[in-house]
Amino acid sequence: MTTPVETVAAPVRASGTPAVELHGVTRTYRAGQHEVRALDGVTATFPAGSWTAVMGPSGSGKSTLLHCAAGLERVTGGQVVVAGQDITTATDADLTALRRREIGFVFQSFNLIGSLTAEQNVALPMRLAGRRPSAKDVTAVLAAVGLADRRKHRPRELSGGQQQRVAIARAMVTRPRVLFADEPTGALDSAAARRVLALLRELVGADRSIVMVTHDPAAAARADSVMFLRDGRVVDHAVAPDAREVAARLAALEA
Question: What sequence ranges are listed for the domain ABC transporter (predicted)?
Answer without folding.
Answer: 20-255
